[in-house]
Design a protein that fits this description.
Glutaredoxin; 45% helix; 4-stranded mixed beta sheet; 225 residues; alpha+beta
C-alpha cells in the first residue's frame, strides 16, 4: 500500500523515543526555518512503534549506548542520560505517540510542537512519558496545543484506532524510524546517516559511518515543490 502525502507536508513514520528520528526532526525543522518554510511545510506524524516491532519494552541499555552518539550529531538539542529513578523509566511509548496523533486533530503545528516537546521531556529532562498526567503537563507547555482537549481525546482513545490502522497498513513500506515520505513519491530512511553496531545491541554501541546533513536540506527543498 502506497503512502499518501498531501502537498505541503512530509509524512514521517517514527517513534517519539527514537534518538535517530529526533536528530532527523531537529535538523528538518532547522532546515525548514532556513528555507523560510516554517508556515508552508508541515510534518504529518505517523507511528512506527518500536516496542511492537522489536517485541520488547523501551530498552534502556540500547538508549544508554545511543545517547552519546546521537548527542554528538545534534548537540544543541540538549541530550542528557536518564537522570530519573530507575522505577520511573517509561517502558512504553504508546500513549506518548497517541498524544501526538491526538494533537494532530487540533492542527499540524500542535502535533509538531507536542511531538518535539515529548522528545525533549524524554531525552533532555528524564520525564516518565508513559504517564497520562505527564503527557498532559507537557502539552500544557505547548502554545498551540489545547491540553484539556488533548486529555479528553486520550481519555476516550479518539486517535488510537486510526493511528494503529495506519501503522499496521504500512508495516511493509517503512524501513524503520525515521522514514520520510514526500508528495513526489520519493522516500528516504534516516536521511544522511549510515551506521552499524559494534557488538550486540544492548551490550555494544552504534557507530556512525556517514553523517551528512545536506540530504535533509534537499528533502525540505523537494517537499516544498
Amino acid at each position: 500500500m502506497s503512502v499518501h502525502v498531501k502537498p505541503g507536508t512530509v509524512v514521517l513514520f517514527s517513534d517519539v523515543v527514537c534518538g535517530w528520528a529526533t536528530v532527523a526532526l531537529h535538523r528538518f525543522y532547522q532546515a525548514r526555518e532556513r528555507a523560510g518554510l516554517s508556515d508552508a511545510l508541515h510534518v504529518d506524524h505517523q507511528l512506527y512503534l518500536l516496542e511492537d516491532v522489536n517485541r520488547f519494552p523501551i530498552p534502556k541499555r540500547f538508549l544508554d549506548s545511543e545517547i552519546p552518539v546521537v548527542g554528538a550529531l545534534a548537540p544543541d538539542f540538549g541530550w542528557a542520560p536518564w537522570q530519573g529513578e530507575a522505577s520511573e523509566w517509561p517502558i512504553t511509548s504508546l500513549l506518548a505517540n497517541e498524544a501526538v496523533h491526538a494533537a494532530k486533530r487540533q492542527s499540524p503545528k500542535a502535533a509538531e510542537q507536542l511531538d518535539m516537546a515529548i522528545r525533549h521531556a524524554f531525552f533532555t529532562d528524564s520525564r516518565p512519558i508513559s504517564l497520562l498526567h505527564e503527557i498532559v503537563d507537557i502539552a500544557g507547555g505547548c502554545a498551540d496545543v489545547d491540553a484539556e482537549a488533548l486529555r479528553r481525546d486520550l481519555d476516550e482513545g479518539t486517535a488510537r484506532a486510526e493511528m494503529m490502522r495506519t501503522y499496521r497498513a504500512h508495516a511493509d513500506d517503512v524501513q524503520g524510524s525515521p522514514h520520510f515520505f514526500l508528495a513526489d513519491g520519493s522516500d528516504v530512511h534516516n536521511p544522511g546517516i549510515e551506521l552499524h553496531w559494534e557488538g550486540e545491541p544492548g551490550s555494544g554501541f552504534p557507530v556512525v559511518d556517514t553523517d551528512d546533513p545536506a540530504p535533509i536540506d534537499e528533502l525540505v527543498r523537494r517537499a516544498a515543490n
